[in-house]
Protein backbone atom coordinates (compact mmCIF):
# COMPACT_ATOMS: atom_id res chain seq x y z
CA UNK A 1 0.00 0.00 0.00
CA UNK A 2 1.37 3.43 -0.96
CA UNK A 3 2.29 5.91 1.72
CA UNK A 4 -0.20 8.40 0.28
CA UNK A 5 -3.19 6.13 0.49
CA UNK A 6 -2.17 5.38 4.08
CA UNK A 7 -2.02 9.08 4.85
CA UNK A 8 -5.38 9.64 3.21
CA UNK A 9 -6.86 6.94 5.38
CA UNK A 10 -5.36 8.45 8.52
CA UNK A 11 -6.76 11.82 7.53
CA UNK A 12 -10.18 10.27 7.03
CA UNK A 13 -10.06 8.61 10.46
CA UNK A 14 -8.98 11.85 12.13
CA UNK A 15 -11.78 13.64 10.28
CA UNK A 16 -14.42 11.18 11.45
CA UNK A 17 -13.13 11.30 15.05
CA UNK A 18 -13.21 15.09 14.98
CA UNK A 19 -16.72 15.10 13.61
CA UNK A 20 -17.85 12.63 16.30
CA UNK A 21 -16.31 14.83 18.99
CA UNK A 22 -18.14 17.89 17.70
CA UNK A 23 -21.45 16.01 17.48
CA UNK A 24 -21.15 14.61 21.02
CA UNK A 25 -20.16 18.02 22.36
CA UNK A 26 -23.31 19.44 20.77
CA UNK A 27 -25.39 16.65 22.34
CA UNK A 28 -23.97 17.48 25.78
CA UNK A 29 -24.63 21.15 25.30
CA UNK A 30 -28.28 20.39 24.60
CA UNK A 31 -28.59 18.32 27.79
CA UNK A 32 -27.07 20.17 30.69
CA UNK A 33 -27.93 17.34 33.06
CA UNK A 34 -26.84 17.80 36.67
CA UNK A 35 -24.42 15.29 38.20
CA UNK A 36 -26.33 12.96 40.59
CA UNK A 37 -25.30 13.16 44.23
CA UNK A 38 -23.27 10.20 45.50
CA UNK A 39 -25.45 8.58 48.16
CA UNK A 40 -24.69 5.88 50.72
CA UNK A 41 -26.65 2.75 49.92
CA UNK A 42 -27.21 -0.15 52.28
CA UNK A 43 -26.31 -2.60 49.50
CA UNK A 44 -22.91 -1.05 48.74
CA UNK A 45 -19.54 -2.48 49.82
CA UNK A 46 -18.43 -6.06 50.33
CA UNK A 47 -20.65 -6.45 53.42
CA UNK A 48 -23.56 -4.54 51.86
CA UNK A 49 -26.97 -6.20 52.15
CA UNK A 50 -30.50 -5.49 50.98
CA UNK A 51 -32.33 -3.07 53.29
CA UNK A 52 -35.42 -5.28 53.43
CA UNK A 53 -37.74 -2.85 55.21
CA UNK A 54 -36.92 -0.22 52.59
CA UNK A 55 -37.22 -2.65 49.66
CA UNK A 56 -40.60 -3.80 50.96
CA UNK A 57 -41.80 -0.20 50.99
CA UNK A 58 -40.24 0.16 47.54
CA UNK A 59 -42.39 -2.70 46.29
CA UNK A 60 -45.42 -0.75 47.49
CA UNK A 61 -44.21 2.32 45.56
CA UNK A 62 -43.60 0.21 42.45
CA UNK A 63 -47.08 -1.36 42.63
CA UNK A 64 -49.00 1.80 43.46
CA UNK A 65 -47.10 4.24 41.24
CA UNK A 66 -44.61 2.85 38.70
CA UNK A 67 -46.52 -0.30 37.68
CA UNK A 68 -49.07 1.90 35.94
CA UNK A 69 -46.48 2.44 33.18
CA UNK A 70 -43.44 0.19 33.78
CA UNK A 71 -43.17 -3.58 33.54
CA UNK A 72 -40.89 -5.68 35.76
CA UNK A 73 -40.75 -8.77 33.62
CA UNK A 74 -37.88 -10.75 35.10
CA UNK A 75 -39.31 -10.94 38.61
CA UNK A 76 -41.90 -13.52 39.71
CA UNK A 77 -44.17 -12.79 42.66
CA UNK A 78 -42.75 -15.78 44.55
CA UNK A 79 -39.27 -14.18 44.39
CA UNK A 80 -40.60 -11.66 46.93
CA UNK A 81 -39.97 -14.30 49.61
CA UNK A 82 -36.37 -13.04 49.38
CA UNK A 83 -37.51 -9.69 50.73
CA UNK A 84 -39.14 -11.31 53.74
CA UNK A 85 -42.73 -11.61 52.51
CA UNK A 86 -44.62 -14.72 53.67
CA UNK A 87 -46.31 -17.10 51.25
CA UNK A 88 -49.73 -15.79 52.26
CA UNK A 89 -48.65 -12.17 51.71
CA UNK A 90 -47.24 -13.05 48.29
CA UNK A 91 -50.55 -14.67 47.29
CA UNK A 92 -52.39 -11.48 48.20
CA UNK A 93 -49.88 -9.29 46.30
CA UNK A 94 -50.09 -11.48 43.18
CA UNK A 95 -53.89 -11.66 43.21
CA UNK A 96 -54.01 -7.87 42.92
CA UNK A 97 -52.89 -8.23 39.29
CA UNK A 98 -54.81 -9.76 36.39
CA UNK A 99 -52.99 -11.94 33.87
CA UNK A 100 -54.16 -12.91 30.43
CA UNK A 101 -54.05 -16.69 30.18
CA UNK A 102 -55.25 -19.25 27.72
CA UNK A 103 -56.41 -20.24 25.28
CA UNK A 104 -59.22 -22.16 27.02
CA UNK A 105 -61.17 -25.07 25.47
CA UNK A 106 -63.08 -22.62 23.29
CA UNK A 107 -59.82 -21.18 21.97
CA UNK A 108 -60.28 -17.92 23.82
CA UNK A 109 -57.85 -16.03 26.00
CA UNK A 110 -59.16 -15.17 29.47
CA UNK A 111 -58.20 -13.09 32.46
CA UNK A 112 -57.43 -14.56 35.86
CA UNK A 113 -55.83 -13.21 39.03
CA UNK A 114 -52.04 -13.73 39.09
CA UNK A 115 -50.55 -16.47 41.27
CA UNK A 116 -47.10 -16.54 42.98
CA UNK A 117 -45.41 -18.40 40.10
CA UNK A 118 -46.43 -15.72 37.57
CA UNK A 119 -43.98 -13.00 36.64
CA UNK A 120 -44.98 -9.41 37.44
CA UNK A 121 -47.81 -8.47 35.11
CA UNK A 122 -46.98 -5.73 32.58
CA UNK A 123 -49.19 -2.67 32.34
CA UNK A 124 -49.39 -2.78 28.54
CA UNK A 125 -49.89 -5.74 26.20
CA UNK A 126 -47.08 -4.61 23.85
CA UNK A 127 -44.60 -1.82 23.14
CA UNK A 128 -46.90 -0.04 20.69
CA UNK A 129 -49.64 0.23 23.31
CA UNK A 130 -47.07 1.47 25.86
CA UNK A 131 -45.88 4.16 23.46
CA UNK A 132 -49.37 5.18 22.43
CA UNK A 133 -50.22 5.82 26.09
CA UNK A 134 -47.00 7.76 26.78
CA UNK A 135 -46.63 10.40 24.10
CA UNK A 136 -44.63 8.06 21.89
CA UNK A 137 -42.03 7.17 24.56
CA UNK A 138 -41.69 3.60 25.78
CA UNK A 139 -41.41 3.29 29.59
CA UNK A 140 -38.47 0.85 29.94
CA UNK A 141 -38.80 -2.40 31.88
CA UNK A 142 -37.56 -1.68 35.41
CA UNK A 143 -35.89 -5.04 36.15
CA UNK A 144 -32.40 -3.99 35.08
CA UNK A 145 -32.63 -0.19 35.16
CA UNK A 146 -30.27 0.12 38.14
CA UNK A 147 -27.65 -1.78 36.12
CA UNK A 148 -28.45 -0.03 32.84
CA UNK A 149 -27.18 3.40 33.92
CA UNK A 150 -23.71 4.21 35.22
CA UNK A 151 -24.10 4.90 38.96
CA UNK A 152 -27.63 3.53 38.49
CA UNK A 153 -28.95 3.86 42.05
CA UNK A 154 -27.71 7.44 42.49
CA UNK A 155 -28.96 8.38 39.03
CA UNK A 156 -32.46 6.96 39.42
CA UNK A 157 -32.83 8.53 42.87
CA UNK A 158 -31.77 11.87 41.38
CA UNK A 159 -34.12 11.45 38.42
CA UNK A 160 -37.14 10.67 40.60
CA UNK A 161 -36.46 13.69 42.83
CA UNK A 162 -35.21 15.91 39.99
CA UNK A 163 -38.43 17.46 38.67
CA UNK A 164 -37.92 21.19 39.10
CA UNK A 165 -39.16 24.35 37.41
CA UNK A 166 -37.33 24.89 34.12
CA UNK A 167 -34.91 27.84 34.04
CA UNK A 168 -36.54 31.10 32.91
CA UNK A 169 -36.88 31.20 29.15
CA UNK A 170 -36.77 27.41 28.67
CA UNK A 171 -39.63 26.20 26.53
CA UNK A 172 -40.68 22.66 27.56
CA UNK A 173 -42.07 20.80 24.52
CA UNK A 174 -45.61 19.43 24.60
CA UNK A 175 -45.67 15.95 26.17
CA UNK A 176 -42.31 16.52 27.88
CA UNK A 177 -41.40 17.35 31.44
CA UNK A 178 -38.38 19.20 32.77
CA UNK A 179 -35.94 17.15 34.83
CA UNK A 180 -32.60 18.48 36.08
CA UNK A 181 -30.87 15.07 35.87
CA UNK A 182 -32.19 13.68 32.59
CA UNK A 183 -29.86 14.01 29.58
CA UNK A 184 -31.37 16.79 27.51
CA UNK A 185 -33.65 17.72 30.46
CA UNK A 186 -36.87 16.86 28.62
CA UNK A 187 -38.33 13.54 29.68
CA UNK A 188 -41.60 11.95 28.61
CA UNK A 189 -42.16 10.54 32.10
CA UNK A 190 -44.29 12.93 34.15
CA UNK A 191 -43.19 13.46 37.77
CA UNK A 192 -44.24 10.16 39.38
CA UNK A 193 -43.66 10.88 43.08
CA UNK A 194 -45.53 13.37 45.25
CA UNK A 195 -45.41 13.57 49.05
CA UNK A 196 -47.89 11.11 50.57
CA UNK A 197 -48.51 9.57 47.14
CA UNK A 198 -48.55 6.25 48.98
CA UNK A 199 -49.52 5.48 52.54
CA UNK A 200 -46.83 3.18 53.86
CA UNK A 201 -48.08 0.06 55.61
CA UNK A 202 -45.33 0.46 58.26
CA UNK A 203 -46.17 4.10 59.02
CA UNK A 204 -42.96 5.63 57.56
CA UNK A 205 -43.68 9.20 56.36
CA UNK A 206 -43.90 9.06 52.56
CA UNK A 207 -41.73 11.99 51.50
CA UNK A 208 -40.52 12.13 47.90
CA UNK A 209 -36.94 11.39 49.09
CA UNK A 210 -38.11 8.40 51.12
CA UNK A 211 -40.16 6.90 48.29
CA UNK A 212 -37.28 7.40 45.83
CA UNK A 213 -34.84 5.67 48.22
CA UNK A 214 -37.25 2.80 48.84
CA UNK A 215 -38.12 2.16 45.20
CA UNK A 216 -34.42 2.25 44.24
CA UNK A 217 -33.62 -0.29 46.98
CA UNK A 218 -36.39 -2.45 45.56
CA UNK A 219 -35.14 -2.04 41.98
CA UNK A 220 -31.56 -2.83 43.02
CA UNK A 221 -32.78 -6.10 44.54
CA UNK A 222 -34.79 -6.85 41.39
CA UNK A 223 -31.70 -6.24 39.23
CA UNK A 224 -29.48 -8.54 41.27
CA UNK A 225 -31.42 -10.83 43.61
CA UNK A 226 -28.33 -13.02 44.08
CA UNK A 227 -26.14 -10.12 45.34
CA UNK A 228 -25.90 -11.21 49.00
CA UNK A 229 -25.04 -14.77 47.98
CA UNK A 230 -22.35 -13.51 45.62
CA UNK A 231 -20.77 -11.32 48.31
CA UNK A 232 -20.81 -14.15 50.87
CA UNK A 233 -19.05 -16.50 48.45
CA UNK A 234 -16.56 -13.80 47.48
CA UNK A 235 -15.73 -13.20 51.14
CA UNK A 236 -15.21 -16.92 51.80
CA UNK A 237 -12.93 -17.20 48.78
CA UNK A 238 -10.79 -14.32 50.06
CA UNK A 239 -10.50 -15.90 53.54
CA UNK A 240 -9.61 -19.24 51.94
CA UNK A 241 -6.88 -17.62 49.83
CA UNK A 242 -5.39 -15.86 52.87
CA UNK A 243 -5.24 -19.12 54.84
CA UNK A 244 -3.83 -21.01 51.85
CA UNK A 245 -1.12 -18.37 51.39
CA UNK A 246 -0.17 -18.61 55.07
CA UNK A 247 0.13 -22.41 54.86
CA UNK A 248 2.25 -22.27 51.70
CA UNK A 249 4.51 -19.63 53.20
CA UNK A 250 5.00 -21.63 56.42
CA UNK A 251 5.72 -24.75 54.35
CA UNK A 252 8.26 -22.95 52.24
CA UNK A 253 10.11 -21.59 55.30
CA UNK A 254 10.22 -25.04 56.84
CA UNK A 255 11.54 -26.73 53.68
CA UNK A 256 14.30 -24.20 53.20
CA UNK A 257 15.18 -23.84 56.89
CA UNK A 258 18.23 -26.20 56.75
CA UNK A 259 19.58 -25.09 53.41
CA UNK A 260 22.67 -22.88 53.49
CA UNK A 261 22.14 -19.60 51.64
C1 LIG B 1 -47.25 7.84 33.59
C2 LIG B 1 -46.31 6.82 33.22
C3 LIG B 1 -45.10 6.62 34.10
C4 LIG B 1 -45.03 6.41 35.46
C5 LIG B 1 -46.18 6.36 36.47
C6 LIG B 1 -43.63 6.19 35.77
N1 LIG B 1 -42.89 6.27 34.63
FE1 LIG B 1 -40.88 6.02 34.48
N2 LIG B 1 -40.94 6.43 32.50
C7 LIG B 1 -42.09 6.67 31.78
C8 LIG B 1 -41.73 6.95 30.40
C9 LIG B 1 -42.70 7.26 29.28
C10 LIG B 1 -40.33 6.86 30.32
C11 LIG B 1 -39.44 7.07 29.09
C12 LIG B 1 -38.96 8.51 29.12
C13 LIG B 1 -38.41 9.05 27.86
O1 LIG B 1 -38.01 8.26 26.99
O2 LIG B 1 -38.40 10.30 27.71
C14 LIG B 1 -39.85 6.53 31.65
C15 LIG B 1 -38.52 6.35 32.00
C16 LIG B 1 -38.09 5.90 33.23
C17 LIG B 1 -36.71 5.56 33.53
C18 LIG B 1 -35.52 5.61 32.57
C19 LIG B 1 -34.85 6.95 32.60
C20 LIG B 1 -33.65 7.01 31.69
O3 LIG B 1 -32.72 7.79 31.96
O4 LIG B 1 -33.60 6.30 30.69
C21 LIG B 1 -36.69 5.14 34.84
C22 LIG B 1 -35.48 4.64 35.63
C23 LIG B 1 -38.04 5.24 35.35
N3 LIG B 1 -38.85 5.72 34.34
C24 LIG B 1 -38.42 4.91 36.63
C25 LIG B 1 -39.70 5.05 37.13
C26 LIG B 1 -40.06 4.74 38.51
C27 LIG B 1 -39.13 4.18 39.56
C28 LIG B 1 -41.39 5.04 38.63
C29 LIG B 1 -42.23 4.93 39.88
C30 LIG B 1 -41.80 5.70 41.01
C31 LIG B 1 -41.85 5.51 37.33
N4 LIG B 1 -40.80 5.51 36.46
C32 LIG B 1 -43.17 5.89 37.05
C33 LIG B 1 -43.38 6.68 32.25
C34 LIG B 1 -43.73 6.53 33.59
Structure described in brief:
With 261 residues, the protein is mainly α. It has a domain at 43-73 and 138-249: Cytochrome Bc1 Complex, Chain D, domain 2 (Orthogonal Bundle), CATH 1.10.760.10. The chain has helices spanning 3-30, 52-64, 87-95, 127-133, 145-148, 152-160, 208-223, 227-256; strands at residues 98-101, 110-113, 177-178, 186-187.
CATH architecture descriptor of the domain at 43-73 and 138-249: Orthogonal Bundle
Low-confidence stretches: 21-29
Level-1 CATH class name of the domain at 43-73 and 138-249: Mainly Alpha
Write the H/E string, N to C: HHHEEHHHEEHH
Lateral arrangement of strands in the main beta sheet: 1-2
CATH fourth-tier homologous superfamily of the domain at 43-73 and 138-249: Cytochrome c-like domain
Residues in helix, %? 40-55%
| Secondary-structure content class | mainly alpha
For the sheet with most strands, the description reads: 2 strands, antiparallel
What distance separates the N and C termini? Answer: 60 Å
**Cα shape:** extended
Strand content: under 5%
Assembly category: single chain
Average per-residue pLDDT, rounded, comes to 90
Q: Count the helices. How many? A: 8
The ligands bound in this entry are: heme C
The total strand number stands at 4
Rg, Å, rounded: 26 Å
User: What is the CATH topology assignment of the domain at 43-73 and 138-249?
Assistant: Cytochrome Bc1 Complex, Chain D, domain 2
Amino acid sequence: MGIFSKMRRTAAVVGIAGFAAVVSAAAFAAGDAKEPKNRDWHFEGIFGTVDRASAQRGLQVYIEVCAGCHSLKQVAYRNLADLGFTEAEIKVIASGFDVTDGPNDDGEMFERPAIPSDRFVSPFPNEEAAKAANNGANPPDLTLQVKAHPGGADYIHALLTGYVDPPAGTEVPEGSNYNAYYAGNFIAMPQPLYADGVEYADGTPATIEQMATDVVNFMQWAAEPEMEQRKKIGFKVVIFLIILSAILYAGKRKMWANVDH
